[in-house]
Amino acid sequence: MIEIRHAEDSPDALRQAYDSFYSERTTEHHHSYYRWILRQLQPRPGTRLLDLCCGSAVLAVEARRRGVAAVGIDFAVGPMRGAAAPVVAGDALRLPFADGQFEYVINLGSLEHFEDMQHGAREMLRVLHPRGTCLVLVPNTFGMLGTIMYARFNGDIIDDGQPLQRYATRVQWQQLLERTGFEVMRVIGYEFPPPETAADWWRFARNPRGMLIPTLIWPFIPVNLASNLVFFCRRARAGAPA
User: Fold this and answer.
1) Which residue spans within 15-127 are E strands per DSSP?
2) Domain residue limits at 9
């Protein structure tokens, strides 16, 4: 596993670093991304969904339009201002929710930024309903269009400036999730979904090489070489190997 750190080794320092980071930029994705995630998950109307490290809570808004009782949580307060869905300011390592409260728990590109990833995964497991599904998206060390391509031209790993970043392989991420009590049901790769809104079409038009090409060749990229890995997990069954 590769780790890049730009903040001091403490929760308070990390929180302040992320507030500062998000005061100057955003890592919010286009709406097509969140809609694609929800299509993969297929949450049932009337169920409860938690989006960890939700930013401006776009995914929670999209989920609520589908009749899902979605709530977001983030400890970087800046991105949540003006969110159009219920959001909670809190720490993903100490979730302020009851055990088994959510039928769906989503963590998109955030687990790799946790100070203690294993403890964060245990918290996701704790608040997940016994028959619920947890979806986790994380970056791949061997992303063909991401880390590998970047290393080809720059001789280094991608550093987007976030206070704490990690990259791992599919097997390494799966082992981390399974050590915390999850059972991985399936893994798929993620690059860029086709645009679905006018704003997303405009973003594609402005960056056709960086966005359109990954979208077109995505179906031909093996999962182990995808830029991002999407894990669908549930609670491990009693007696299953950890």
Assistant:
1) 48-52, 69-74, 87-89, 102-108
2) 2-235
Number of domains in the chain: 1
In a domain, 242, yes or no: no
Nearest residue to 70 via CA among 47, 41, 92:
47
Which H helix or E strand runs over 104? strand 102-108
* C-beta neighbour count of 140 within 10 angstroms: 24
> Which tokens hold the place of 228?
């991002």
User: Taking the model in full, what pTM does it have?
Assistant: 0.89
CA angle 134, 147, 198 (to 5 degrees): 65
Tokens found for residue 47: 């169920």
* Residue-wise pLDDT tens digits, 136-167: 999 999 999 999 999 999 999 999 888 889 99
Contacts of residue 100, defined as CB under 8 A and 6 or more positions apart, other chains included, come to 126, 127, 128, 129, 130, 132
Judge whether 127 and 73 are in contact, CB under 8 Å. Answer: no
Q: Give me the helices (H) in 42-100, please.
A: 58-65
Could you tell me whether strands 102-108 and 128-139 are parallel, antiparallel, or unpaired per DSSP bridges?
Answer: parallel
CATH for 99 = 3.40.50.150
- C-alpha to C-alpha distance for 184 and 133, rounded to whole angstroms: 10
